[in-house]
Known about the structure:
Layout: H1 4-24, E1 29-34, E2 39-44, E3 49-54, H2 64-94
Antiparallel strand pairs: 1-2, 2-3
Helix pairs in contact: 1-2
Amino acid sequence: MFDIMGMMGKVKEAQAKIKETQAKLVHLTSTGESGAGMVKVTVNGDRKVVSIEFDDSLLSPKDKEMLSDLIVAATNIAMTAIEVKIKAEMKAATEGMIPNIPGMDLGGMFG
């Protein structure tokens, strides 16, 4: 028989674990590189850019457009990488707590 009280307890436990894990995500970082490492962008688990580094050779006014393109590319790489880490952290935090119900996708709960 379906245990609704047990299920509610699991949901509350999962919510607490998710909140705790989300608070830790700010310390999670990913760095994306472009231009063979000439531009590096680091983002955190809060999906915020925390640093941008670039090679001094890119400071020439004639390379302004290329620098912009490299920063965008490195940022997109870092954002993609942090999403993977965030999902892995959230999955690990709730593993075994939320039952696998066919047709119920809880992936959107994690950010």
